[in-house]
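Re: the 122-residue chain
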Amino acid sequence: MSELQGLQRHIAEFEKRNCKVFAVSVDPPELSRERVVRRLRLSYAILSDVRREVIEKYQIVHRGAGMGGTDVARPAEFLIDPEGVIRWTEFTENWRVRARPEQILEALDDVQSKKTALATQD
């Protein structure tokens, strides 16, 4: 959960860049709200994907890796633009390894600078 707290510590930097942060969990919403959002005092939402539709769509299912052999999400970070295009991803097979907020912010700056460069060419 330290990765969620890390994102929270940098939330102002994401907001300055007009980036909305949220997390996706396979836990039921009441667990995410009670156990995570409130306890960690997160100002961003954790979306519940109990039917695992999102993790299937984004191909980040770690089959049988959850408690009791359930499917869970493989750690991943995405930068998705307002049009829904994935501009950057970070995947790992090890649930203990996550992108640091600084790494995500650097990727966001890169994505935004490329988009600005393309807009000025038009």
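The mean pLDDT is 86.
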